[in-house]
Amino acid sequence: MDMTREAMEKIEQLTQPIIKEVDGHTYAITAGGMTEIKPVPDMPDPLALTSLDALVKLVRTEALHIAKYINPIYITVPDPTLVKCFGQPDPNLGETRLTYYHAKATDVPGWEKETTLSFEAAMIALRTRFEHTTDTDYALKLLSEITTGAKVTFNDNGIATTVVTQKGIALQGNESIRPIITLKPFRTFQEVEQPASEFLIRITDRGIKFIEADGGMWRLAARKIIKAWLENALAMEVENGSVVVAL
Questions:
Q1: 18-64 pLDDT, tens per residue?
Q2: Ordered DSSP codes for 98-123
Q3: What pTM, to 2 d.p., does this model score?
Q4: Concatenated DSSP letters of 59-74
């Protein structure tokens, strides 16, 4: 039997939910039960920043004024290249948190877990992509001796590499290379001290390989350095409880 248009419209009406307002809350009532309809707040996107200095200035001049009735505001460091600033749950926004800023370190060259470079490229990288340490000087001296040697012989026993360099006819040096050196690649915000990492180095006739040997612990160290920097820069706000800085 064909259903009439009137009957189809009646069935359609019966399947539509009934909307009810109860004590300021909106509910949709269907045959399956009652579900609260929660409004979706119109949330602005976090302001994108590229430095810790900008974050500190905006927290002081803007965020604290926005959140003056809902203190404290929070700053977290989830990643060595990212800092987030957000407020407490706001009852006017359905108990959601307003995220004010994301500071992202976009101008750091970074350094891979395992990097192989020619001797000349490694010398350039050590001068331009690393914060200075005593082991930076050691690596530069080592590479300089290798690149200026007329004859280079390598002997790698799996623990350390021995390099024999010969300059001219009579001058020859035989040196066992330290297998682990400590370096500070630029991997986080440039306003802070770069975290140190141990690197295993391996030398072949084609170049030098740097292998990260700290198990990624530099990431936690970097986050702690950023947290300490922010707590110092916002010392008054942290002390009076209007700002909380956390990892």
A1: 777 776 677 777 766 677 666 666 677 899 999 999 999 999 999 98
A2: EEEEEEE--S-----SEEEE-HHHHH
A3: 0.76
A4: IIIIIHHHTTTSPPEE
